[in-house]
Design goal:
alpha/beta; 7 helices; 14 strands; globular; disordered N terminus
């Protein structure tokens, strides 16, 4: 699938820290489809996740996406809004349903009565995880700091959802989590920050034999007891099986990435249309691609909380539009 960018293309900058192919979210109009594509045709409005690490990145007037990680957009959905959706929600779905396996899907009951801890709940992936957890009927313990006021809009206090402020320190955060567990141990934790010792804010409250934690940045945490299963949620497993560096590493989905993407792209489309899935707060950066450096540096320096940045390709000075000769 190829999406049009002149005049209506939008990109979501993302700080991958390792992968050089930034800006993987896209939204626009389909201009051409491959011979095996059956779900899309020229003229369709859609949003997609670019194949991570591919040469055909998202910062261009035209971009390529695969049909199993692309979803249709309703006529009222703006492209700049839609560009905030793919990465965060695919990552959240992979983390909850493929890595932690809190349930087989939103159509099934949770496997355990244990709540889900989301560390970094105000981030785009964290907020998406909270939203999907609520669609799935899970109780959520959100760990957040400066974005607490935003996280309050995601939870349901009548279902005993709570927010724990990590700024009080790891020890107090763990104690507050334990107080919410009523003497039981935590089974599920999704750490969407995955750095600077973030695991120390929740793992001491986990079940040492049945606990499961999934990170979004690769690396086996030696300080976590071996009885707690560790995994890394990786969007790259939507396209291929990722090879672990050692037997104890679990990187993304081992198999079924295409089928997972195909199923959840349709669910994401429906949740958006039904209003079950809300958009993350975002800001369109002035100047199109000229504003990309500002957006990426702001993200990398940790100066943005509970907000995404969107790049509108058509706003780039000097760009040639579809009506012009290219």
């Amino acid at each position: 699938m190829q999406s049009q960018r002149p005049g209506n293309g939008h990109r979501q900058p993302h700080d991958h820290r390792v992968c050089p192919n930034s800006g993987d979210d896209m939204a626009g109009t389909v201009v051409e489809v491959g011979s095996s594509v059956v779900d899309f045709r020229s003229g369709d409005r859609g949003a997609a996740l670019d194949k991570l690490g591919a040469e055909h990145g998202a910062y261009a007037e035209y971009a390529i996406a695969y049909q199993w990680n692309t979803f249709h957009l309703g006529p009222d959905m703006k492209f700049e809004d839609a560009a905030t959706v793919p990465m965060a929600n695919f990552m959240a779905a992979i983390g909850l349903f493929a890595m932690l396996r809190v349930t087989t899907g939103t159509w099934d009951y949770p496997r355990q009565k244990s709540p889900l801890v989301v560390y970094g709940a105000s981030s785009a992936v964290g907020a998406a995880a909270v939203r999907l957890a609520k669609i799935s009927g899970l109780r959520v313990i959100c760990i957040a700091g400066g974005g607490k006021s935003f996280v309050e809009t995601l939870i349901d206090t009548s279902k005993e959802d709570v927010i724990v402020d990590y700024r009080q320190g790891a020890e107090k955060t763990v104690k507050e989590i334990e107080s919410q567990l009523g003497g039981k141990k935590l089974i599920y934790a999704f750490d969407v920050i995955s750095e600077k010792g973030s695991q120390n804010f929740f793992w001491p409250a986990m079940d040492l034999n049945a606990g499961q934690v999934s990170f979004v940045l690769w690396g086996y945490r030696e300080d976590i007891p071996k009885g707690i299963e560790q995994s890394t949620t990786m969007a790259g497993s939507l396209w291929k099986e990722l090879m672990p560096l050692s037997k104890r590493d679990r990187l993304g989905m081992r198999v079924g990435g295409k089928d997972f993407g195909r199923a959840y792209s349709k669910l994401i489309r429906n949740w958006l249309r039904e209003g079950q899935l809300k958009l993350h707060p975002h800001e369109v950066v002035p100047g199109g691609l000229k504003g990309l450096e500002f957006a990426l540096k702001t993200l990398r320096n940790g100066k943005s909380s509970a907000k995404k940045y969107v790049i509108s390709i058509e706003d780039t000075p000097g760009i040639k539009h579809a009506s012009e000769k290219i």
